[in-house]
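Figure S7 source data.
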Amino acid sequence: MTARDDQTPSPIRLADYRPPAWRVERIELEFELGIDSAEVRSRLQLARDPQQQAPLRLDGEGLELLFIALDGRTLHEGDYRYRGNTLEVDGARDGSVLETRVRVQPAANTALEGLYLSGSRDRGFLLTQCEAEGFRHITFFPDRPDVLARYTVTLCADRERFPVLLAGGNPDGAGELPGGRHWARFVDPYPKPCYLFALVAGRLQKLERDYRTADGRDVRLVIWAEPDVIDCCGYAMDALERAMRWDERAYGRNFDLSVFHVVATHDFNMGAMENKGLNIFNAKYLLADPDTTTDDEYRAVEAVIGHEYFHNWSGNRVTCRDWFQLSLKEGLTVFREQQFSADMNSAPLKRIDDVALLRRAQFPEDAGPLAHPVRPAHYSEINNFYTATVYEKGSELVRMLAGRLGPEGFRRGMDLYFGRNDGRAATLEDFLAALGQANGIDLAPYLAWYGQAGTPRLVAEGRYDAQRREYALILRQHTPPTPGQPDKRPLPIPVKLALFGPDGRMLPLHDGAAEQVVVLDAAEQTFVFTGIEHAPVPSLLRGFSAPVILECAYAPAGLALLLTHDTDGFNRWEAAQQLAWRAYAELRDGSGHEALTVWGDTLAGLFGQGALDHALLADLLTPPGEVELAERETDVDPSRIHALRQTLQRELAARIGAAVLAERYRELAAHAGDALDAPSQARRRLKRRVLELLALLDAPTAQALAATQFDRAATMTDRLAALAVLVRDEAPQAAGALARYRERHAGNALALDKWFAVQAQLPGEAALARVRALEADPKFTLKNPNRVQALLGTFARGNPSGFHRADGEGYRLLAARLAELDALNPQVAARLATAFNGWQRLEPVRREQARAAVAELAEKDLSRNLAEIVGNMLKG
Ligand code: B3K
Ligand code: ZN
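Tokens for the predicted zinc ion complex:
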């Protein structure tokens, strides 16, 4: 393995943390902006840690140093050294002022980290992305989150080319300069780490709104976008206002600047970024209108708007001491977003979505060669640790803590956490201490969750003693080994539970309560419930009270009872999932059809009753996805899993019946319109599921309905659902529909992404040729992360039967693209490479093909980002 240039290959370790030897109290930045070249002047006011002797060392990558002075004296060669991404300066004292001037090249920056150009040279705009370590691509600085400084930023540029100049903080003057140039200054009163610095400059239009915080501050909210899409920002503005109100109510947190900017870009490595006072969004999570945005995407916009806004407290006012603490801000902020989205929409549906994501993205990560704890102990490239484990599992850990404390206790704890750590760079220990101390509870045992990788298995066994009217629940736990962690400790696992009698009613537990939380904190414990009149069916882990895999030998009839009667919406869905899993295993192993029958008949019954919420019904009718099914197997053959899952769904469809499905489809389709209210969205969700099931029984009818739906659709949700059915079935109408879609949405990048993605999902052998053809499309480019994700990400991650070909062509295509992409954008390449995760569990032929493709890639000259992923992938 070779890592490019002189980057340190040795890992950074949590155990090596030392406070910074030098801090920066104030930084004044002055930018002279241009497309090809920009000059950055910086003035740092330094403070020295009297306990440490280290010379002044600053991070800087790819900077052309034009000038350097210390305390007003110009430095010359010999007074400083700029080598290997570090600038070392002699003679600095506590209170010294260091001035530098550097040149950077925005248009040549394809990594989209630091200062770069979004869009074309003549019409695009300049922006920055600093988290995690992009600031060092802009100027020299101690680029670590525990150096908090006060920022004054002045932007200067040509007025005609860059009419809008923005930076984080409060505006502090603007004016004209000679030669058609102008300037604008921003002062941020809150000390912040440099990863939260941002600027934007270009031709942007705005949507504005006035907002008054609960504590009486007037704030101007401004969303900025390029002129052709400014009309698509209204939904995001409403969502922002909802998020701000919600944080005031739920956490007592108010916004703290006089202006809050949000900017949309089509060229972004991730979803969005919470820069202080100047959030920057991937357009995908900001722009929305009924003609191009699906219902799921509307909810994603609301969620990401909330997420970034909530970071203003969980991340910005209280930041992380070091990057090992990343989940301190990310897990907590995902949790806050989940609460917000649950409050704005349906709480059970949100929980189902989130747990499905956890199972699809995080469980496989935790089970493969890239497994790492929520707080990793070491890393080589921090950008590789913005993972489902740090985010989604991190959120589950906060949820357990919140559950342990109850709503009032958690709020008390959060108040103490925010109050005590405001303006500080904190650790996960600080977080647990505040939550615990505010409630007089020792939460230290939960720290073990942060340090241990792998998904715990929770084994539950119930024994009913009719004579003593006692029910004993025996709970055991074990966590399989993960790379570097062979031995696992027991963790505190809160199990929220209820017991159901044979008639589907909840049995009273201790003190007559219907629901209770027991905490398993040893390898095995028994919990006894007395006064239980019947052998109960336990509803365990209600609301998914811990991120574990539950193993419980339910009889299919017991699961059917929960599916029909459980009062916890999430656990109803969970019962359907468990039943579907059993039914799938029966099909696979030819081991009878008990679960299949119970699953199909129970769902067919619920379908016929029509009493359920449409969206919940749609989710109940959806078995675990191909990725989740593969998780429970060894010698994985994705094409077989695909075929079996299709058979499984066909069985379900047959039990409901083609006529019933077609009839329900027509009923649902009768309510047209583009309304976004919950019932309308739910109707569209069910309509889609019904159409998909019908397609498995009676393809010609379903295709005809889909073609009509495609032509008449009033929403992107309906149009795309219909298109997906046509494309996946390779229906005769598919080509025409694709052509019409392409024509209709020619000028819209986000709609075009969906055009690429829907075709990348073509199942089986046909996928590869389609992906190759699409790569040759003039609209395909490796330079745009959204386009790469739409085509290659969807193919490699969202289409197992297409990607995992036995001949290995899918793997070779991905490996070849990764090498090309890595030269342009290492972060995006490294993220895409994680699609190889799980290769060790493939059946032998595919396993060898995948291994060979990854090994060959590893031989190339790779970025540190991609080298780390590929290296870990081969280690396990
Ligand atoms: N904090 C950013 C993610 C930055 C990723 C850097 N590679 C977005 C978020 O989680 O809100
Ligand atoms: Zn975040």
